[in-house]
Amino acid sequence: MLVKSRERLGKTDISTPALAWISQANFRSVEILGRRGWVQASFTNKELRELLTDDEILTIVDPKDFADSLNDPSLEELSNSRLKQRSRGLFEQMLEN
To answer: Is residue 36 within 8 Å of 42, Cβ to Cβ?
Structure first.
């Protein structure tokens, strides 16, 4: 929400006060931090694809952080979930930015 243009947000169900506040804030950069790795992230694959395909957004994933997050528990979780395996491909695309 913070990185979408006013025009794009206006087409959503966002409240008028929230739209006004976000529009006035004029964010130039948003950083998303997590305490675990990407495997445990709760983004949907649809949300990740939206981040990757939006021309107004540059997604950056630190290669070292990505590699460090592939510990044994994460690899086990990854092996048991096709959704997470698809997420991996999306995060790997972000590594290329």
So the answer is: no
